[in-house]
Design goal:
Strand order of the largest sheet: 2-1-3-4-5
Order of helices and strands: HHHHEHEHEHEHEH
Number of domains: 2
Bound molecules: CO-5-methoxybenzimidazolylcobamide
Structural class: alpha/beta
Largest sheet: 5 strands, parallel
Low-confidence stretches: none
CATH superfamily of the largest domain: Cobalamin-binding domain
Strand content: 5-15%
Number of strands: 5
CATH class of the largest domain: Alpha Beta
CATH topology of the largest domain: Rossmann fold
CATH architecture of the largest domain: 3-Layer(aba) Sandwich
Number of helices: 9
Helix content: 55-70%
Length: 210
């Protein structure tokens, strides 16, 4: 078994205490950080499939999520670098009713390293909370909404539409998360969509510089 395969196996088994050490060993062996991150993301897909098949339940999903978060902590310094350029402030959150935060946290790290000052509102974020954060923070150039559940896509639509009709200006809205598509982003009036954390930085820069 390769070290990356070991990371995957322990992550899928929800071994939060073992995953960070294995991630470090995988790095020490010379594996690329992107490959390790992709392997962990793939494992979360495996966990989701097992949940759908009724082979595991919410507690196991939660343990796998904790293991991934611990693994991400190890690679975080390698994913982020301090950018000298300032792209303004980005307010980010997972939309109301949705508690998934791993993807949102990865997007946060990548946008921070691209040069945004990040205000992370966490999960289950109401429209009102997004609006309050825009009003309370200076130079908000981007609002980023994440969502993983098909059932919370209506909350994402509500949030984007409320942001657009709030009368507040100076920022663009980017959306993402597994069920989100470019077509959906267009339909709900978002300015941009990105399928993953890497492309979110490219799209975010494009939006705020436009
Ligand atoms: Co839940 N869950 N979950 N879950 N969970 C999914 C999403 C699911 C697909 C699993 C499945 O059934 N196969 C399914 C949703 C089905 C659907 O709606 N179509 C599901 C379900 C049903 C549920 C519950 C309803 C289960 C229940 O209680 N019966 C419940 C809902 C709770 C709630 O939110 N109200 C629930 C709960 C949970 C846990 C709390 C146990 C846990 C989350 C813990 C946490 O996040 N701290 C959890 C987990 C871990 C998952 C899976 C297994 C993994 C999610 C993950 O972290 N992936 C997931 C299955 C799956 O994803 N295949 C599943 C890794 C992460 C890196 O990817 O978040 O997709 P992701 O982020 C990606 C992109 O989407 C993108 O970039 C990231 C990668 O670079 N991205 C953005 C994300 N946000 C972006 C924003 C952007 C741009 C890109 O711009 C702003």
């Amino acid at each position: 078994m390769t070290k990356i395969e070991e990371v995957k196996a322990k992550l899928e088994a929800g071994k939060a205490k073992l995953v960070p050490g294995l991630v470090q060993e995988a790095l020490d062996e010379g594996n690329a950080v992107g490959d390790i991150l992709q392997a962990m993301t793939d494992s979360m897909g495996v966990v989701g499939d097992k949940f759908s098949a009724g082979e595991i339940f919410v507690p196991e999903m939660l343990m796998a999520a904790k293991a991934m978060s611990k693994g991400v902590e190890v690679i975080k310094p390698l994913l982020t670098s301090t950018s000298t350029s300032s792209l303004g402030t980005c307010v980010i959150g997972t939309v109301q009713g949705d508690l998934h935060d791993i993807g949102k946290n990865l997007v946060t790290m990548m946008l921070e390293s691209a040069g945004f000052n990040m205000i992370d509102l966490g999960v289950d974020v109401s429209t009102e909370k997004f609006i309050k954060a825009i009003k309370e923070n200076e130079n908000v150039t981007l609002v980023a909404c994440s969502g993983l559940l098909t059932t919370t896509m209506s909350a994402m639509k509500e949030t984007v539409q409320a942001l657009k009709s709030s009368g507040l200006t100076g920022f663009k809205v980017i959306v993402g998360g597994a069920p989100v598509t470019q077509a959906m982003a267009d339909e709900i009036g978002a300015d941009g969509f990105a399928p993953d954390a890497g492309s979110a930085t490219v799209k975010a820069k494009e939006l705020v510089k436009a």
